[in-house]
Amino acid sequence: MSSRSARNMLIRQWQIVQLLHGRRRGLTPKRLLEETGSSRATLYRDLEMLEQAGVPMLRETVNGEARISLLGDKLPELSPTPLQWDALRLARSYLEPLRGTSLLSELDALLARNRPRQPGSEPEPEPEPSHAQSLKVLDAAIAQRKKVRFRYRSASDAKYRVRTVDPLMWRLVDEHVYLIAHEPQLGYRTFKVARMEDTERLEDDAEVHDVDEDELFRGAVKIWSGPRVQVAIRLSPYAARLLPEYPLTSEQEVRTEEDGHAVLHAEVAGTKEVQRWVLHWGAHAEVLEPASLREQVRQELRQMQAHYEDDGAGA
């Protein structure tokens, strides 16, 4: 499992614990599906992992209806070892882009209980990220299942456009926070929170969506979802040696040749992020398939070359 998937799984499972906490009668699986926006398979996988981690859960049938609850009125007090505290602090550093959400507030409150303090001194508050206000609005909208409206400009747009969506979940990739949402007529969309402005929670209820996050992003290089495309890329011995450190996807297949070259095969979601990955390697990577991706890389290289065709530097 990649660190990206692990962080998203942590966010989902923490949300489940928050939903069950303080509910004496628990919740039905249907209600948990509605509140989390997960698929049934993802929900039951998360519940099983929480039980294996020692979260005191009870699954029972009441009046013919399945219910899931936490045992006792509250979660038991945590008594982590020093090494576990260090692990929590490390996890907190990776989740910093989510500051402003309830998940980070809970984690900060937990860590504050074990933070060594010098007498008469208080730690300086960290400055909030520029998108913190949008995060707070979106966090509340997800918890309350309300629609949100915001102004958004994607990387390819010249101007901001107003978007109204059903917010579903967070996704954290390379320290950037993305909102996964459903937009009428357009389907499931991914929005970079840092590109949002004037974010507001609406009073209209969001629709319930049964979405499997793992399936939605199967084949994603980073964050984009889209039609599945089979790609083949030939790598130099240098790139082949470093490939384990910079994989294209977690499910890629690599065939090493006798001369040290390697051919990578993968099913990816769209080709835009693959194009960037190939260009990162420079002359050490060559697209073999599909022809359309090969042409995209060729066009990009031609435009890059045009900047260097004269002898003037920045004329």
- Quantity of strands, as a count: 11
**CATH fold call of the largest domain:** Arc Repressor Mutant, subunit A
Straight-line N-to-C gap: 48 Å
* Biggest β-sheet: strands ordered side by side in the sheet: 6-5-4-3-7
Poorly predicted spans: none
Fourth-tier CATH superfamily name of the largest domain: Winged helix-like DNA-binding domain superfamily/Winged helix DNA-binding domain
Shape: globular
Largest sheet: 5 strands, antiparallel
Q: What fraction, in percent, of the residue positions are helical? A: 25-40%
What oligomeric state is this?
single chain
Number of helices: 10
Please report which band the strand proportion falls in: under 5%, 5-15%, 15-25%, 25-35%, 35-45% or over 45%: 25-35%
Domains, number: 3
What CATH first level of the largest domain would be assigned?
Mainly Alpha
* Helix/strand/pairing category: alpha+beta
Named at the architecture level, the CATH assignment of the largest domain is Orthogonal Bundle
Residue-averaged pLDDT, rounded?
82
SSE topology string? HHHEEHHHEEEEEHEHEEHEH
- Kindly provide the radius of gyration, computed on alpha-carbon positions and rounded to a whole number of angstroms: 23 Å
